[in-house]
Amino acid sequence: MAIVQIPQFHSPARHIFFAAAIGLILAAGLFPVHPLNAQSIHPTPAAQPAPQALQQEAPISSESFAQNQAHEKGNTEEEGHNKFGIVFLWVALLLIAAKISSIVERFGQPSVLGELIIGVILGNLALIGIPSLDAIKGSEIMNFLAELGVVVLLFQIGLESNISEMQKVGVRAGAVAVVGVIAPFLLGTYIVGPWLLPGLAFNAYLFLGAALTATSVGITARVFQDLGKLQTPEAKIVLGAAVIDDVLGLIILAVVSAIATVGTVSVGALASITGKAVAFLGGAIILGQLLAPKISKLFSKIHTGVGMKFTLAISFALLFAYLAGKIGLAAIVGAFAAGLILDPVHFKYFKDPRVCHDMKVIAEHSNSPTKEEIQKCIRKYSDSHVEELIEPVGYFLIPLFFVITGMNVDITTLFNFPILLTALGITAVAFIGKIIAGAVAGKVRKSIVGWGMVPRGEVGLIFATMGKSIGVISSEIFSIIVIMVILTTLLTPPILTFLLKRNQEGQK
Question: Which of 6, 236, 247, 440 has the lowest tally of Cβ within 10 angstroms?
Fold first, then answer.
């Protein structure tokens, strides 16, 4: 396959190139051209009273009825084409913007930070007089693609993780998760909330504390992935703790929602929520390990090609995401569980990548030391083949999730000084509550584990949105939670990157 060489621009040509590219993108996305039609050229005149004779309903012939139906069908199809046409433009706009934002990598920062920042910029362009992109944020199709992106991301993380290695850190991950949920919840509900926001109903403090509990595993996982640190003990503890954290967050959300709406929550309802979560995770791992080899062997009898291998893997992820959502868990928990279950051995009946075949031919004509090295490479490519098949899907969908997450941030909340000051205090609690959790991580870099649990991301926004929808928290508290989410989401990647790089330099 031919490789296209991209010309290397030098300053100031490079700056002109980037400015022109951004200008074209924004011009295309922000000022769409609407097709002309007869109504736009000839406006419909104001309705005039019809003569009495004409007001009587005339009989409609079958031919006229058929023509009307065809006309309505044509209008519907045209509207559908226009609807999906603009979505194509939106996707192109966000993908190009995401790649432009990867310039942050030149400053040693992960690309996820650039995607979040470019999302914040695009989502708040109305503040400088440029038409807003609210249509993207409100699009069900775009939000579905974003949700699919985070599902694919967690599936990738699960594939790159090893279930036996996760079990080794299971106790420590559980301890980190429990402390990381209890500490910020108690601080937010009983101490900092009443101190900074006196006079509110107790239910408001409950939701404020609940919003501080849940970790957004997608942000941290992306940082570890970008820096190639997914196999470190700290990463495994954080990922394991984040899954448990999500389950505990679900329980807390259910409890505080019930208290806010009906005043109490029954022990039976609490036990049911907990039981479903534990049963799903345990059952998925145990049954998945038993059934995955048999399912793989069955489908290999139909076809052993790469297409079947890809279809089986991605379908497994989507099925588990569906099952998780069905019992009330986040879809990303199911996707992560699916990735944990699928091991390379489950795909031994399918064809290896073409490069493995070529390397086997070379190995047959090589001496013993070289042959052993080639065989190691063959095993490496074979074991990681499913991950490589999923990777292009991630290139397409994952940036959409992070850009749209950034677009949902309303920075006008930063312009109210009292709210901003209170939000900074709440944010400090959000940082402290999770960093404390790193202290129980065992013999690892506790600061990396603690900071890895800090980002709240979309999870915190879900808590805040639910509290506002049932009338428990005001717009001001909602803004405070949003600011906390912004700061924990944007500040964690560079700080975590710094800690990981410093740890790497210390090991040299």
Answer: 6
